[in-house]
Amino acid sequence: MGASGKKLKVAIMGAKGYPYVYGGYDTMIRELGERLVAKGVHVRVYNHRSLFPKKPRFVNGIECIYTPAIETKKLTQLSHTFFSMVHACFSDVDVIFVVNSGNGPFGIIARIFRKPTAINVDGLEWLRPKWKGFGAKYFKWASRMATKHYDQIINDSDEMRRVYLELFNKDSRVIAYGANPRESVDAAPIKKWDLESRDYFLIVGRLVPDNNAELIVNGFLKSDSKRKLVIVGDVPFEDEWSNRLKQVQDPRLFFIGYVTDPNELAALYSHCYAYFHGHEFGGTNPAMLKALGYGCSILALDTPFNQEMLQNGKHGWYFQKEPQSVKEIVEKAEAEPESMDSFRNSARSGLTQRYNWDYVTEQYLEVFEELAGK
């Protein structure tokens, strides 16, 4: 409740919408939105009009507004946030919450209308290989604009907070991304792909260069492992790099594309011998949280973000960015099954309170109430 006893109204924008679940931001909006509604907050989510054939006004207590976008690969996201921001500024919402640092410049619109704002800026977008040239420059500029035009910057890891302080001289509030741990998951769904429990290594993520699937595939194929390497994920568009990767021939390699059924995905995580995490840029990674929540032994690329998430080696081993290092870690993992067992047994304890969705929601609510109170 607001200070005057009326319901706090929060508008959320910058992702695909609700109840759409495809990426990390969409998942966050669902987990956060539903919990805020349960706490008596009026939540409005701005949905991409073209993605929703049916357009109900309320879903599970969340108000959905369907705004248009300029439908091109580069402009969809930004134009959608622009239209949503204008709509929200002309409405009676108390606080506007935006996700994605690419939406940094739009904070100026809210500033003109004196609407309090918060933005979750997430990873180092400008370093990702997919944004070459102008794209990279835009993301870095947009992230800088976010630090100037929004009232509250939110990062999801301590390392990311350090980066923003160093680069843009701006402090941010750290609120981690949440996880949903599951204790026991039946192995039946993996039979669909003729897989056996503990008989495969797993990669989950978009097939883009910065997730380093190619590095892991090359290193794995150099190893003497008899297990399979299962790769879950794809890209939603035609892409030369991912097509080339999918054409690598080896009986141990298994590309299974997108897995949308949550039970199938849970089973793939829970029953892998080890989960490979090659994500290079960004803070708290949802795929890594799933791996911890499903009790995986984890082999991660050695980055400051992955060190932070695995508590500096307490919950997994690290490999370097070269195929030989991947080969060695595969062979070491197979030679030490008892180490893999102990990582599996301790994985869920790595999901400390900071990754609990209820706790995450409490922290966001605190931010929104502070902003509305100003």
Order of helices and strands: EHEEEHEHEHEHEEHEHEHEHEHEHHH
Please outline the major beta sheet.
8 strands, mixed
Determine the strand fraction and express it as a percent band: 15-25%
Strand order of the largest sheet: 3-4-2-1-5-6-7-8
Number of domains: 2
E-strand count: 14
Structural class: alpha/beta
| Named CATH topology of the largest domain | Rossmann fold
User: What is the molecular shape?
Assistant: globular
CATH class of the largest domain: Alpha Beta
CATH superfamily of the largest domain: Glycogen Phosphorylase B
Continuous helix count? 13
Keywords: Transferase
Domain DUF1972: 9-179
Pfam family, one: Glycos_transf_1
Protein name: Glycosyltransferase involved in cell wall bisynthesis
Describe this structure in words.
Helices cover 38% and strands 17% of the residues. It is α/β, with parallel strands linked by helices. It has two domains: 9-178 and 356-373, Glycogen Phosphorylase B (Rossmann fold, 3-Layer(aba) Sandwich), CATH 3.40.50.2000; 188-352, Rossmann fold (3-Layer(aba) Sandwich). The strands form two sheets. Strands 3-4-2-1-5-6-7-8 form an eight-stranded mixed β-sheet. The protein has a six-stranded parallel β-sheet with strand order 11-10-9-12-13-14, with helices on both faces. Strand 13, helix 10 (304-309) and strand 14 form a beta-alpha-beta unit. Helix 1 packs across helix 13 and helix 6 crosses helix 11. The protein is globular and about 60 Å long. The two termini are 15 Å apart. The relative contact order is 0.12. InterPro entries: DUF1972, Glyco_trans_1. GO terms for molecular function: glycosyltransferase activity. This is Glycosyltransferase involved in cell wall bisynthesis.
